[in-house]
Amino acid sequence: MVKISLCMIVKNEEEVLRQCLDSVKAICDEIIIIDTGSTDKTKEIAGEYTEKVIDFEWIDDFSAARNFAFEQATSPYILWLDADDILQEEDQKKFKKLKEELDDSVDAVSMMYHIAFDEFDNPSFSYRRNRLVKRDRNFKWIGPVHEYLEVYGNIISSDIAVTHRKSDKSDVNKVNDRNLIIYEKRLEQGEAFSPRDLFYFANELKDHGFYQRAVIYYREFLATKKGWVEDEIRACINMAACYRMLENPEKEIEALVLSLVYDVPRPEVSCRIGDLYKGRNLFKKAIIWYRLAAEIELEDHQGFLQQSFSTWYPHLQLCVCYWQIGERGLAEEHNLKAKYYRPNDSQVRFNEKFFKEYKEKNS
């Protein structure tokens, strides 16, 4: 059985740190907490789980802090988490099994990261991250903000998921200014942005409501032609979202179609285009795109995964569109397909009641 060091960087995480550490304390052989300037009870809570609570002077560089944390580890493998991450009970069991069976030839293990959830608490936005890495490979974190762990070699994909859970008291809709401030400082200092920097800076601008400026940086990122394909597709989708907020539907659809340069239509892209046609009452055209979203088979990839756009959502929209063009049988059929994924959805139930009453009235 391999031994694992948990490495975390934290600041003012008293609301969430305990739930994180409780979920992994039985898995990790060593816990290392790097504090970057907490003024609450974060360090006191961390001290309940480990003696290795170490101060690190914050220098506006997440990679520097994470690399420092990794340098403190002594176990053969390193697990990293953020304070608002947890392992659900089922994933804890899977992780313990992985720990027992992991071959030391493995350099890294990727895990799913669930960061958003629907009203039924099902993951609605997920992607993979390399979570467990071999210490003696000396993998490094890169980038002052939106940092990434550069990993290579023998990498395996596990079915373990890390779940992002904010505290009940946190404002999930609040946008943190920290990352945007770091990027702005770097710009003021004349630093040249990498393609990855351009993409994430544009994301920060979008999240803060600076839509016009975000579009500029998305286009600059795409112009480099050096980005990861998943980021290129996401840039098109996010750029479309900016145009939607700017009430420019022509540019919105243009941005969505641009994503086809990089790969087959992703379900989200198809649904967004379908929404635009449906909004104009062009139901037959909308049907084409919703069907594409529901039927296309994508190869397994490391990009962002939003299950709704390939499962219940296009079927629910197809139900509406087919009803509007008089295809009542197909409308009911697609409502049933939506029900398979979301049996308790209020719209699905409303449609069922509507179909029942319609049949009774017209029988």
From TrEMBL:
<dbReference type="Pfam" id="PF00535">
    <property type="entry name" value="Glycos_transf_2"/>
</dbReference>
<dbReference type="InterPro" id="IPR029044">
    <property type="entry name" value="Nucleotide-diphossugar_trans"/>
</dbReference>
<dbReference type="InterPro" id="IPR001173">
    <property type="entry name" value="Glyco_trans_2-like"/>
</dbReference>
<feature type="domain" description="Glycosyltransferase 2-like">
    <location>
        <begin position="5"/>
        <end position="138"/>
    </location>
</feature>
<protein>
    <submittedName>
        <fullName>Beta 1,4 glucosyltransferase</fullName>
    </submittedName>
</protein>
<dbReference type="InterPro" id="IPR011990">
    <property type="entry name" value="TPR-like_helical_dom_sf"/>
</dbReference>
